[in-house]
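FYI - complex with zinc ion, inputs then prediction.
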Amino acid sequence: MIGFFRHELFMKHLAGYNHVESPQRVEAILARIKKSPIASSLSFIEAEPAKIEWLERVHDPKYVKNILALEIDEPVVLDWGDTVATKVTPAAALHAAGAGVQAARLVLEGKISSAFCCVRPPGHHAERSRAMGFCIFNNIAVAAAHLVEEAGLKRVAIVDWDVHHGNGTESMFIEDDRVLYISLHQYPHYPGTGSAETIGSGKGQGYTINLPMSAGSGDREYLAAFRDRIVPALDEFRPEFILISAGFDAHEDDPLSGIVLTTSAFRTMTELLKASAEKHCKGRIVSMLEGGYDLSALAESVEGHVTVLAI
Ligand SMILES: [Zn+2]
């Protein structure tokens, strides 16, 4: 059974007026999933809030405290204009980060086989002490840190196919050989990081793999990168758990990118990671929503992604 994590708060958090990172994103996904034949194979689970100590594994305690103490009457700008908090934002961010840990625990306990966390706000740009790029807490990093620190896993892979580089996630594990971070992203593009030369440092050297893609790249380039680089890297690393930073903004219809993936590429990428997870770690996958801003492309791509996870 696949866990599908959701919460009302993810539909209430407003990232600003007329912002692309809108509640309609999650509404469009849920509307599509509910009508999908796959709905009967999903276990819909309400996300729980993260504990403060889970957040503090990757975030500065002062930053966590400041976010949770926000008292908001008018929208508050957290990061030069593009990351805005409104009244329910701290609670939504807390539940978005909690969902990943909760999903990872249930997968480890064998209660669900894998999971998709349909969360907002997204997470992969959030840094240790800084909100950035619509992200408040780094949801996927909180889940990875739980797996290595609390569950004691020695090898956790994060595959990040959001069209933007996950600068926050990369920086949190740049010196860590327990977490392999692999990112495919348009480059150069926001946030500017993610060159192929960044490969990790210290003990973490070789455990960061950046696969920059030029604008105009599509299914052929992405699937070649999966077959030539990502699958072999996972075979070498032998992950005990695979996390996916699942952004769908590399879709050809997405307004925020110049990458032109079709909906079917997201299915194929999911199939390849699922095969890798089955080979190395009993199929353990937790996927977390990051970006994706064309509502119908997003809903259709998530349906395909979840369907592949579930069948
Ligand atoms: Zn993105």
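The first strand starts at residue 2 and ends at 6. The chain is about 40% helix and 15% strand.
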